[in-house]
Structures are given as C-alpha cells and as structure tokens.
Design a protein that fits this description.
The structure holds two protein chains of two kinds.
Chain A: E1 7-8, H1 28-41, E2 46-48, H2 53-70, E3 75-80, E4 83-88, E5 93-98, H3 109-114, E6 120-127, E7 130-137, H4 146-149, H5 154-157, H6 169-178, E8 186-195, H7 206-209, H8 221-224, E9 225-236, E10 243-253, H9 254-257, H10 261-273, H11 276-282, H12 288-296
Antiparallel strand pairs in A: 1-8, 2-7, 3-4, 4-5, 6-7, 6-10, 8-9, 9-10
Helix pairs in contact in A: 10-12
Chain B: E1 7-17, E2 22-29, E3 42-50, E4 53-60, E5 71-76, H1 84-91, E6 97-101, E7 104-105, E8 115-121, H2 126-137, E9 142-148, H3 157-164, E10 168-172, H4 181-186, E11 192-197, H5 200-212, E12 220-223, E13 234-238, E14 243-247, H6 253-259, E15 278-288, H7 296-301, E16 304-305, E17 311-319
Parallel strand pairs in B: 8-9, 8-11, 9-10, 11-12, 13-17
Antiparallel strand pairs in B: 1-2, 1-6, 2-5, 3-4, 3-6, 3-7, 13-14, 15-16, 15-17
The chains are: A alpha+beta, B alpha/beta.
Amino acid sequence: MYAVNIEPHVVGPKGSVLENLIDVDEHYVAEMQDRALVLAEDPLRCQSLPHMTLAGWDLLELLMEQQALGYPEHFTLTRDGDKWRWINRPLGIDDSFTFGDVSTLPYGPMEYITRQSQGDFCILDQRDGNLWMDAGMVTTQADWSLDFDIGMNFFEWHAPVPLAHEKGIFTRALKFLTNIQQGKPARRLNWTMTINPRLDTSPENYHKWGPDRATVTPENVGDKVHLRVELQSFWRLPRSNGIVFPIRCYLIKMDELVTQPKWARRLHRVIRDLPEELADYKGLTRYRATLVEWLSKLDDGSPTSAGFGPD
Amino acid sequence: MSTGTTKLDVVVSDVVPVNELVTRFHFRRRDGQLLPTFSGGAHVVIEMRDGERTRLNPYSLMGSPLDTREYTISVRRDDVGRGGSLFMHSSVRPGMEMVISYPVNLFSLDLRARKHLMLAGGIGITPFMAQTAQLAADGGNFELHYACRTASLGTYADELTERYDRRVRLYHDDRDERIELDRLLSSQPLGTHLYVCGPSGMIGWVRDRAAALGWPTETVHFEHFAAPQPGAPFEVTLAVSGKTIRVGEQQSLLEAIEAAGVDPPYLCRGGVCGQCETNVIAHDGKFIHNDHWLSEEEHRSCKKIMPCVSRFDGGSLVLER
C-alpha cells in the first residue's frame, strides 16, 4: 500500500526530468505566469515566518546555483563576495543585489527566487527533534493549504494521511529527514490524480476544480483524467540548518499514458486495488469506477516489468 | 543509506598554538574551491590516519560561517584521552593532506529567539565562536558567559572581548569567579533561548537549574559530545556479518566494528545523534553506557547500545551488526 521509495537525489539520464537536480522544462514561462496569477489572487500562498529569512537566502542560493548549472543558456549567476548578479533570460530579468540584504531585492529572498522556479517549495525549520512548516511558496498543490499548515510540525501537517501513522511511517520518515546531510539530498515520488491539466488544485480554489470530478464520463476519461506525479526532494540548507522540500508536479493525461502498454496495465491494477481510504484521500472516489473500467480494456493480464521506465 | 557524510579533501593551511593546551588548525580545500557554507554550531569529523589506526573525531567549526575560504577548529590536548588530540598536536603540520566530513549541525541556533544566552565552559567555547559571528553579522541579540580555569587558559577570551565587548562576560576559576546562574536565568526577557557547551558537570548544572526555574525544555540547548572513554578490552560478536572482534583499550566499539570492515552509519561519534544505535541480541555482563541518546530506561533494558561511546564488561556480547 505504501512503499518506501526514498533514494539519493543524484543526476539521472539525459533527457529525463532527473537530468538536473532542479528541473526546468518547456513549461517554465507559462508556469511562472500561472504562479504570478495565483499569487495576485491569493497572496497567502507565499508565507515566511520571521525567523525563516535566512533559510530564504539559503534557498535563493540553491536555486540560482542549480538553475545556472543545469541551464547556462537561460540563467547566469555571478558572485563577487556578497555582490551577486542574476540573469534570467526566459523571464527577462537582470538583477544585481547584495546577498543577505533584503532591501536590495523586490521581494523577500524566498519569494523572489520561487517566482522564478518551477514547483512548490516548503522550507522546514528543524528544532526540538521535529520539522516545522515555517515558510513556503505553494501554488501548484494537490489539495493542501500552506495557509492552514503554516507553523505546524511534521506530525500535525501529515495528520490527514490515512493508515500511515499506525504503521509508524511518519516516525521513521522524520528520523530520516532530520538526518539529511548537506551535500546529500534525497528524493521520493508521490502521486494522485487530477481532472483537467490544472496545477492549482488548492482547497482555497476547490470551487473551481472540485466539481470537475463529476464531469468524468467513459467518453472523456482519456482526455480529462491526469496522473499527477510529484517529484519531492529534500535538501539540508547550510546557513539556517533548515530543510527545503521542493514539490515538483508533472501531469500526464490518460490518452498519453496508455501509449505505453506497461503503464496502462500497471495503472489499471494500482487504481483497481487501492484501499478505499487511500482512494478517498486522493479524491478519486467519484470517478474511480469509470477510470478502472476504461483502463481494464488495456490490461491484457501480462506481468509488468520492474521500474517505471517503459518496456 | 548513508554512512557519515560526504567527504572533503583538504590541506592543512595553518597550525597555530593558542595557549599551553589548545592548538588551532586551519583547513582549505585541495582544489582551491570554497568550502561548503555552514551554520554556527556545526562540527566536522576529522579523519586521522595514525599508522595502522584510523581515528574519526568530531570538532566544532569555530570560524565565521560567512568566510568559507577555510575551516578552523581548536583542539585541546588531552594527555589521558585515547590519543586523537595528541595526534593532532604532535603529527599534524601545515601542508598535510587530510580528509574531513561535510559540516553537520547538532547544536543549531533557534532562530526564533529574541535573545541568545550562551554559557561556555573551557574548550566548549568553540561552537560559540561561530554562532556569535553568525549572529553579530545580522544584528542578532546575544550574551556570552564564559568560564575558564585561568586567564591564560581562556581560549579566545581576548578576541571575543575585543569583538563583542560588554556582550561577553568572563569568569576565572583561579580568581574564584562563578557564573551567578540563578540570577542570570531569572532575569532574562521572554523569548530568550539558552545554550550551554562545556564539561558534562556544567551542562547538567545548567539544565537542572533552568528546569527548576521554569525554563521550557525547548528553549534549553546543549552540546554534549562525550569523547569515547578508554576502558578494558572486550570481545563482541557481530551476528549479521558473522564476525568476532576485539575492542582494544584505546579503541571505541564503533572503531573496532569499522576496523572489521563493517560500516554502521554515524554522524557525531559522540553519543548524541543516534545514528549508530545498535540492537543487542545477547549479553552476559555489564554495559557501560556513556551516551546521551538512549533513555535511562533503554540503558537499563540492555537491548540497545551506542557503539561510538559505550563499552561492555563481561563474558559475551552479541550485536545485530
């Protein structure tokens, strides 16, 4: 039901989303515009408690360095002591600022850089043997709210997850995360499903996307239903000793997914056999039967090979 | 998934005697690049190749986190210890190539604090060197009380006074000066966090008084590296790897396990981080627990041991390693 799928976050094959540790893809400009629209409507998607500014600078350094390293044609970072210059060509940005001096940037350091980086970002403060959701930029989430979770600890913000507390999963996960070391990031994948290719499925906007779940029919499954995969990575931040937890969301519609017979077979079995509590938690209940029926026609019963790559 | 941390190849760039007991060591990266940024309170593990023997000892980084051209540590010579500090003092010279770990912070500042009240005893001053530098650079509010035996053994007392003036208060044992702890702990503004690093007697005293005076435990932070103590040799069977090893008088159990080619995870090697926690399968004898990780109940249960600092006295011990 739950699999431990944590592994070191190291560079993967060329052309994959793991080619660089912070992935920038062809949706970059559109996703950044989408983020700006969400923030204009709801500024509380970006929050940083007063003690988290230093961690924001840590994140700014990490994202600038990683994006410049992976995509030198798009991003350039020049450092001369604390005098930094950041060039972001796709967004037409060329800013010089003093690292550590908030007055030299148009936003706080976390907001500044996460308006220029794909994916959501949670910055966790580490203290008292726990992790605390004390800052974040969250505009592309799967039905959870930063404004609700801000200031909560690891067990509190995971409280709604079914069946995992009893299994001791969060106690073990916390032990692992509080021991994440600088220079040794880790990653895991998480998944759910989303109707229509919508990044912002927040509780705040439930009225906009929730009713979509009632629109799934056998005829439109392939186009409307999307598998939503989150690439979550975990990084120790050097100055603040916090942890940053980027959550990068990728969506694929069923019509595209089933172009790989292995993926069609496997997804059919996973959705069919998912415990009801998990299906409810992931919000699949209303269209699950329709989806399983549609996928079942693509499952010939043959075994699926290990790993998530196509055959 | 991880044994220790990522390693850094460094060269000793300077060795500076500080006083009759303490020497400071400077490290730079061999490739000339900057070292990783760190946070005040972090330590690195220094690998010491001493002939056949490898020691891995943790030392607090004491330079400013704002300057990562070099790392500095200060080592107090311990003439009756297991030899790590003696090796550093007698064998490490400028130009020598060494391997150290990435920084790890188990004594982090709580950045929510309105004020940081720091109490140091002896060589316990080192993490505060980095923390005060970090706080001072950002206008942070701190106060440092530093107890040392004599003025000449007050490592870095002059530098600290010069840098921070009235924010530093010194206490000399030979002049019978004592930290007025109860008065200090009773007169702090709300939102103060307390940090203590020094001999274990001092840490215990400060924690006890803070608890008695109503300080919430989340506001009391301490760095409690117990260096492994030497002791009588003993034999251990490692059930998973099928090996029987002998732990020498000057060796820690963790070092003996590593010498046998088994690599348990570790971070602090001082009994506080919990990484090397090991299950006991069978035993016939007495445990000598020296860690600060397991609870007293766990110590009494004889089901777990922290091999980095704890030992065993008896007929046989079988561990799940």
